[in-house]
Amino acid sequence: MAETDDKKTSETPVETPKVEEKPKEKAPTPAEVFTPEKVVEAPKVEETPKAETPNYAAEIAAMQAQVAALTEANKAAAKEKAEMERQLMTAAAADKYRLSDEAREFLSGNTAEDLEQRAKKLASLSQAAPVIGKGGLDPNDTTRSLADLSPAELAARIPKNYF
User: Fold this and answer.
1) Cα 151 to Cα 157: distance, rounded to the nearest angstrom
2) Which pTM does this prediction carry?
3) Separation of CA 84 from chain center
4) Among residues 139, 142, 135, which one has the least CA distance to residue 158?
């Protein structure tokens, strides 16, 4: 410890340079700074005439009208699409259960499952014989043997809407 103390004392102290002091000048007064010759006027802003100012309110109103018209058109298109999809589902259910055009108008519902259930029920209530092939005699009819029938009776059993 004695050695470190000796080193500190043996070193020469560093001298700080002296700063020369300037004589203080007298601060200017506001009257001296703001003389009429030194005051600069602010540039004048030119006002635009009212006719040249864009009318954003009119543009906004026009755009709002366009948005309203497009919204209404979108709603109408969505409604038309829903009606067409319903008609397609109705036709598919009626075709599956072979309903006549008159019976199709009694089908109601908004989902395919609902329409199919109603078409099935309507087909069972109408008791319409299922159409087999393109027409002709019903092979399931066992009331009399076809060989025992006369040609007139056979012709009477053929559906009228065959041709």
Assistant:
1) 10
2) 0.41
3) 20
4) 135
CB 110, CB 86: distance < 8 Å: yes
Amino acid (1-letter code) at residue 139: P
At 74-130, the pLDDT tens digits run 999 999 999 999 989 998 888 888 888 888 888 888 888 998 988 888 888 876 555
Residue 131 tokens, joined: 């159409």
Q: What is the 3-state secondary structure (H, E, C) of 56-106?
A: HHHHHHHHHHHHHHHHHHHHHHHHHHHHHHHHHHHHHHHHHCCCCHHHHCC
- Sequence ranges of the domains in the chain: 60-128
Q: Is 134 left (phi over 0), alpha (psi -120 to 50) or beta?
A: alpha
Query: The tokens of 14 are what?
Result: 């560093």
User: Considering just the CA atoms, what is the radius of gyration of the chain in Å?
Assistant: 52
* Distance, C-alpha 8 to centroid of its chain: 83
